[in-house]
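Hey all, sorry for the wall of text incoming. These are the two entities for the joint prediction.
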Amino acid sequence: MGIHLMASATLRHTAWILRGNPLTAVAAAGVLILVLIAIFGPSIAPYDPIASSVSEALLPPSRLHLAGTDQLGRDTFSRLLVATRLDLVIAVSAVGISFVIGAVVGAFCGYAGGRLDRSVGRFVDVMMAFPLFVLAMAMVAALGNRVENIVIATAIINLPFYIRFARAEVNVRRNVGWVEAARASGEGHASVVLRFLLPNVLPAMAVQISLNLGWAILNAAGLSFIGLGVRPPTPEWGIMVAEGARFISTGKWWLVAFPGLALMLAVLCFNLLGDGLRDILDPRMRT
Amino acid sequence: MTEPLLRIEDLHVTFSTRQGLVEAVRGVTLSLQPGEMLGLVGESGSGKSVTGFATTRLLDAAGRITQGQIFYRGQDITKIPDRDFRTLHGAAMSMIFQNPRAALNPIRAVGLQIADAILSHKRMSKQDAEKEALRLLHAVQIRDPEKRMSAYPHELSGGMCQRVMIAIAISCNPMLLIADEPTTGLDVTTQKVVMDILANIAAERGMATILITHDLGLAAQYCRRVVVMEKGRLVEEAPPEALFRQPQHVYTKRLVAASPTASSRIEDLVTNEERGAYLAVLAASKPLPEPPAGTPPLLDVKNLAKRYDQGPPALSNFSMTMKAGESVGLVGESGSGKTTTSRMICRLIDASEGEILFNGESIGHLPAREFHRSPHRKDIQIVFQDPNESLNPRFTAFDCIAHPLLRLSGMRAGDALRQRVEDCAMRVGLPVDLLSRFPHQLSGGQKARVGIARAIACRPRLLVLDEPTAALDVSVQAVVLQLLDRLRREDHLALLFVSHDLNVVRMMCDRTIVLRAGHIVEQGASRALFENPADQYTRELVEAVPHIGRGQIREIAGRGQSVTR
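and here's what came out:
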């Protein structure tokens, strides 16, 4: 019964936040649609995203081809739908990896201080001194042109932000009464960090994660755009923009505009969701 | 009498919150003569600060004056537009706040901040303003004012920051000063100095002052007239002597009873009508059987010392013993090392030197980071100072109390655990239906009870109390103190009471240890130590405590202000 009560309280609270903040509701709906498309995209796509048909090349948007066709006669709308899964998977797994590693490393640094904190801190400083996109390019080029490597590269260049963020958030809380109380109740240092401090910095980090997802999608698309990472003919928003760019001077605007719009909407949804998420996850916002 | 300087007529202030409209002030009427110091006393939520904020028009955006007038020199200031009101700020009325460090700009030298305040109201050159600022620093008795002009707030102590705030507040010769808890959070000796400065300046300049405070003793010592507020209403207005000798209103009676004085006993903290219940508890408690000869003391601390990397040692050569069921007070000002000591005895931090024996067994050799595995972990528990900060925001009250039971008593989730947690809650007087709430849904007193319930859940034998009531209202403090005393009698729990509140320590503790700058200055039986302090420092501490009821009020030349020396 207790769990049921808790769940309904959480739902009520979420509903309250969304009512007071319609933009968050719109963003949440957008993210939900993106996820649904990622799951069902291949089965709802009207055409095969890879099959080419030269006779239908470069058709403008029409009722048959909602977003027109590309130079090989592939349906742009179908390719957009199918690409959602790949783009989201890259972004979510990259952000997930950097969040898990970054939060744990940062939390321990912030809690322990001292030599560990200083050495990790300098390492992070060094990493942040590089132009991050160039670093990602170098890593994908060195590791090989594969989807896993885009994920790894995106995760690594994200890591410094998570380490710094978790470090700062834990650092201000490490001397707070309830941390000492947890130790007096028999928790060791490690479990204080993992079971007490990390859950408490999670709401603040949720904002970071949400903002970061949008950025990670852009990053993956950017790598594909310059020819690193996902390779044609796999549908991916970045590649689609890159390929379409060749035809923009001849007035074939739909090849760039629709993938660009998809990218923009996805990034926008994740960014808008950020603030609302913090309010929903933080129990202190409840009354 | 002529037209009063300030006259508040039937003031109502309403805040709009998520729960709808909340009336914080419901019909306050009071007046203030020029040069008078008025004490506005009440507990948290009584509306005393809101009244002050409404007068200076510093209410935050959610608050609104819904009814009533505030007349300043006969002019209704609730009606004048914001732009005109700004000229009143500083020149006519100004305000000082509880946390002076937060009210000062951290990246600007304090001398310049005072000069800024002067320049915003007077036309004069920057040099003249700085000269004026220096004069003000002299007036608030800051040592080396020439040097302090260029100091930043973080380089000054809390008391010094409050003096700077006073200097800013009086920089434009206001007729009215509203002091909102000006000395809360300062040590008693600092409190006395700051209040004396404030009272002297007010007297010299004929400035009227409203002293908003939760401390009846402080108001009694410095004000000729005290107004008591409860739940947004004014319940009593009287000269302090009358207020303490013969409180009229039920709430005032409770408040006066709950404020510990130099002579109060723990059972005195409630009104006569409520005393019976507590006396019954006292009568039922059995005296502790004398332990057989040769029993080691419960706690034996020998030559404890703590040094940090920089600065002088935080504590050196500290020794003490405690028996089961005994209560010992550890008294000192901020920086005296009392917090360090309490954390070392709780084995949360390591000592640099010395031995800690618990029940004759050395527990000091186990490093603090391993101590959570020690079988003695559950025997030594601690109650933290600020109840707002001592509960994990993501744990419900139930989780907080259950946590040590799960970790230290080897209990598993289930009916037995629920039963035990509910027992603990009942012992500390926490309604069981509050157990499902998160800390932010509980009041300060309720959070304090959760903290105590958590600490006693594993049936410890030594409880360290780190300023357990410093953040609580006096009426809540009274209940918490009685609760602790009852636990001591019923469970023979030893209490180590770390506090700067001498009246509380005197009442609660058999013995007291006075710490200063990491050294024991004096120790002995509490009553004797406070009545007849041997050391100069102890004497200063005792004298700095505001005395309720026996503060001799002395006229200062002129307008009828009162200052106690």
